[in-house]
Amino acid sequence: MTKKTTSSLKPQYFLAIFLISSVVCIGALRTNNQNMIRLRDAVYSADKTNADTKQPLKNLQNYVTAHMNTNLSSGPNAPYPPIQLKYTYERLVKSNGTAVADANNKIYSEAQKYCEQQNSTDFSGRNRVPCIEQYVNSHKTEMPPIISDSLYKFSFLSPRWSPDLAGWSLLLAVSSLSLFMGAILYNRIKK
């Protein structure tokens, strides 16, 4: 006598793989987010301390665009774009204003010397004031155009899936969940 054997899929194996890969995925997604926060803080710190922001910004961009769960926005009321080099921009605007003021002060000094030479015989100074005004008006430095703050604002997109630990474990979790459900369905149909 031979026993009739039927093979059935073991759904519990797929469930175990799903649970393990889900835990790994959650941990990897959390790590991705923590690394993004660390890199973002490095950009903010460099901006605030007047250090070079190019390399920290490049590091942040490379990381965010290559890893899942690294969205830079933090909440519904977060500013857009999320990375704004506020202090770098303010320093640039201030230095431009200072440079113009210094240039205009220099022109005023030059105007005084020029007009003193032109009107050296005029001891009352009556002709010097219009001469200085005319010299300053014809030589003064205009304020440069307003610097666009868009040059100091950044936003990087995080991919929906990335080929890192988080991405592969997510793919494994979804696949094992599908196989788990398929095995249950297969066993029910087989019976």
Describe the overall structure.
The structure is a single chain. This protein is mainly alpha-helical. The protein has two domains: 10-82 and 155-191; 83-153. The protein has five helices and two strands; from the N terminus they run ααβααβα. α1 packs antiparallel against α2. The longest helix has 38 residues, at 11-48.
Write the layout of secondary structure elements.
Elements (H helix, E strand, L loop, with lengths): L10 H38 L5 H11 L18 E2 L1 H33 L9 H12 L13 E2 L10 H26 L1
Antiparallel strand pairs: 1-2
Helix pairs in contact: 1-2, 1-5, 3-4
In short:
With 191 residues, the protein is mainly alpha-helical. It is built from five helices and two strands; from the N terminus they run ααβααβα.
**What is the H/E string?**
HHEHHEH
The shape is rod-shaped
Query: Between the first and last Cα atoms, what is the distance in angstroms?
Result: 22 Å
The stretches of 5 or more residues where confidence is low (pLDDT under 50) are 1-6
How many E strands? 2
- Order of strands in the sheet with most strands: 1-2
Largest sheet: 2 strands, antiparallel
Subunit organisation of the chains: single chain
Share of helix, binned: 55-70%
